[in-house]
Every structure is written in structure tokens, then in C-alpha cells.
Amino acid sequence: MKEYKIETVVRIYELAELSEEERELVEAAMMATNGSYAPYSKFLVGAAARLQDGTIVTGANQENAAYPSGLCAERTALFAAGAHHPDQPVVALAVAARKGRQFMARPISPCGACRQVISGVEERYGVPIRILLYGTEGVLVSEGIKPLLPLCFVDEDMR
Ligand code: THU
Description:
Blueprint: E1 11-13, H1 20-32, E2 44-51, E3 56-60, H2 73-84, E4 90-99, E5 102-103, H3 112-125, E6 130-135, E7 138-143
Parallel strand pairs: 4-6
Antiparallel strand pairs: 1-7, 2-3, 2-4, 4-5, 6-7
The protein binds tetrahydrodeoxyuridine.
């Protein structure tokens, strides 16, 4: 038997500690919650992807009466980025969520499917995506998806 220990390092920053560009991305994610369509959960999520050329592409969760047919904010943003700017790597992704007007205190935590898609986008361009998860208590920052998705399935696993 062999044991592997997997260490995850993430950092929590105050908004003021982020760079201006990062703050702009977090604010874009907060603004993107206005595009949420969440009549079922009433949980309004926004995501903002920064592309290598500086462009910001946003998305918001879109729900459906057939619940699994809806899509999270992160994937809405990443798929829009891929569809509209296929040649531009995504270098950062910010996510924010609110109920009513109040943003969540704890940083929003992307679901497993979104983590897998973030991993896929990193693979696609060979560029790690800096992840900024906003909460009023602080912004959780992960240097790429790997700390949030250890032992993940990648295309290499199929070869
Ligand atoms: N949701 C997101 O859009 N992103 C997350 O990181 C977590 C969950 C959405 C999916 C659904 O519309 C609602 O939040 C409740 O799960």
C-alpha cells in the first residue's frame, strides 16, 4: 500500500488586497448576477472570465423547470468565451453569488461539473486559470483549478 498526501493551498484576500484588474473582474462577476435567471433556487450567480487579451466575458446561471437542464454561471461564461473568442486563453475566472440584494458571506464554491469544465479549459489552452471566488468575508484565490480538483480526469488519461 502506498499513500499519497495531496496538499491544497488557497488564499483568502480582502478585496482591497487584490490588483485593480482582479477587482475589476470580481466586480464584473458581481454585476453579472443581474443576468441570472434563477426562479427556482433564487440563488443568483455571476461569473466573469478574463481572456489573455484583457477582454472580460460574463455569464450567469440559467435555470429551467427541468432542473438539470439549467446551467451554472461558470460554465455559461466559459462556454461563451470559447464560442466567441476561441483563440483567446482564459487566464482568470471570478465568481460571485447573492440571495436577493445581499452577496454571500462565504466565497461561492463552484460545483464539481464546473470544476471539471474549468480543468478542460486549462487543458485546451495549456494556461492555468486564476480563480477568484467572492464572498463578503473575503475572496478565495486558487492558482489554477488543480488545488480545487485534485486527481482530475484529463484527456491524457484516455491515451
Ligand atoms: N450555481 C452556479 O451557477 N454556480 C455555482 O458555483 C453554484 C451553483 C447555480 C446553479 C443553480 O442555478 C443555483 O446556483 C443553485 O444551485
